[in-house]
Write a structure and sequence with these properties.
Bound molecules: adenosine-5'-triphosphate, magnesium ion
Strand order of the largest sheet: 6-7-8-3-9-10
Largest sheet: 6 strands, mixed
Shape: globular
Number of helices: 8
Order of helices and strands: EEEHEEHEHHHEHEHEEH
Oligomer: single chain
Helix content: 25-40%
């Protein structure tokens, strides 16, 4: 079984006038299809930085990222947008909902980057909102009229609307009371039962214990829980060492043979 997410020796260095901040150090991590992985670690340890890379919202300064066998570094911006739209549902730490739009309009937003016909978009959004059990009478409310827990569920519904195989969630229970947090976790467990791969960042050891595996990050380094598939060479060097093949037999751009 090939990992759905496979990062190798990833570094992330932020450069600014104030100098360089080396935030991720040699991070390697693989996640199998259908796995539920929790990422934990102290505030400022690099969890969201890692999640942004996993979600193709940011690129590593060094190192490799293979997402469903695609070498992310080889994708251009349009291809990245497509991969993000089709493969990944992202639940942001700060929700990133648009306050002036209604709940259902927010949930439909990711569909704008797909070829789902307009006539089907509302129905998709309805299904996603039902999955997170947001009451129907809230669907036409503006985001600014919702509670934090309701916003969190809208953010999860938006991540589900494309039916992506991978869900990345950054502190999805961070602002919730324990009852609403449990409801949100139940949603993630149901998604895993439906075959989704879930990567969830949390400060809460109780939440992390609900996952199949907990990965701990400290000071930008994986401290515990990394699983790196046993491959004697890097994927790239494995591809480079393949015998010459005709152009027509080449794998599509970015696909690891
Ligand atoms: N764009 C950026 N430029 C410079 N530094 C950054 C940038 N993004 C994050 N950092 C720094 O990287 C470090 C890790 O930030 P990150 O948001 O990944 O932490 P975190 O583990 O998610 O923390 P929290 O649990 O508080 O959400 C912090 O010191 C932060 O200031
Ligand atoms: Mg964070």
């Amino acid at each position: 079984m090939r990992p759905v997410i496979d990062i190798r020796n990833v570094h992330r260095i932020f450069e600014s006038e104030a100098g360089c901040a080396h935030i991720l150090h040699n991070v390697s991590l693989a996640v199998d299809p259908g796995e539920f992985v929790a990422i934990t670690g102290p505030s400022g340890s690099g969890k969201s930085t890692l999640m942004n890379i996993l979600g193709c919202l940011d690129k590593p300064t060094a190192g490799d990222y293979y997402l469903q066998g695609l070498n992310v570094a080889e994708l251009d911006d349009d291809e990245l947008t497509e991969v993000r739209a089709l493969s990944i549902g992202f639940v942001f730490q700060s929700f990133n909902l648009l306050p002036r739009l209604s709940v259902i309009e927010n949930v439909m937003l990711p569909l704008a980057y797909t070829n789902v016909p307009c006539s089907q978009r509302e129905m998709r959004a309805v299904h996603a909102l039902q999955a997170v059990t947001l009451p129907v009478d809230h669907w036409d409310h503006r985001i600014s009229e919702l509670s934090g827990g309701q916003m969190q569920r809208v953010a999860i519904a938006r991540a589900l609307v494309n039916d992506p195989p991978i869900i990345l969630a950054d502190e999805p229970t961070g602002n919730l009371d324990s009852a609403t947090g449990a409801l949100v976790m139940e949603t993630f467990h149901k998604l895993q039962e439906r075959g989704k791969t879930i990567i969830l960042i949390t400060h809460d050891p109780g939440i992390a214990a609900e996952a199949d595996r907990a990965v701990t990050i400290r000071d930008g380094r994986i401290h515990d829980g990394a699983y790196i598939p046993h491959t004697p060479r890097t994927l790239r060097s494995a591809v480079d060492s393949l015998p010459m093949i005709s152009a027509s037999a080449n794998p599509p751009k970015g696909v690891v043979a």
